Amino acid sequence: LLRELNRWQPLDHRHILPLYAVCRMRGRLTLVMPFMENGDACHFLQLNPHWDIKKILVETAQAVDYIHNTAGVVHGDIKGANILISATGTALLSDFGLGTTIAAAKDITEPSIRYARTAQFSAPELFADTAANPDEPFRIRSKTTMSDVFAFGALIYELYTGAPPWAGMSDHVIALNLCRGSMPDRRGYTRTGQEITDSLWDLCERCWRSAPMERP
């Protein structure tokens, strides 16, 4: 928690949820931040299905650009549940619990692995060894800016379809699909009145390229 605080609190951007302080309540450390009455992006879009999803994506992309290119931070868990919506409809990136500094990520060797929270948003290079051994718990290597880009493509899919990629599949099956170069099906889930355009689907596919350096 203190590591998350040290990484999150200095961030200063209009589309990043500010972290005000940390305090101890009933013996537990607690993060203090603004209350977002609209909840996360997924919940907000369920209640407002005709809201401009592109606006949420653009604002999130601006936050990601800031943490990567100005703050030198990898988020590590980009998904709809970590995009909060303000009372005025502004998207704010939150929860840097899986994040790390870019410099630290580069120093971590390949065998260094740690538990992940969200398989559906993880890039294939992060858990190739898990695909080979289904008896092992879901583990990943250190995340990078390029794995954040991969997750952003999954975020596009989630917000437009109403479900994360590979919904209902086990971590092992997801790992196998990604390591084989498979992509989620564009068809299936759709939100009322909003579908992924050809240009947005092209962006998803570029974010999901197997080679990290080929991603936008």
UniProtKB/TrEMBL annotation:
A Pfam entry, by short name: Pkinase
Origin: domain of life: Eukaryota
Keyword Ribosomal protein attached: no
Residues in Protein kinase domain copies: 1-216
Protein name: Kinase-like protein
Keywords in alphabetical order: Kinase, Transferase
Taxonomic source organism: Auricularia subglabra (strain TFB-10046 / SS5)
PROSITE patterns on file: PROTEIN_KINASE_DOM, PROTEIN_KINASE_ST
GO molecular function, one term: ATP binding
Listed InterPro entries: Kinase-like_dom_sf, Prot_kinase_dom, Ser/Thr_kinase_AS, Ser/Thr_Kinases-Pseudokinases
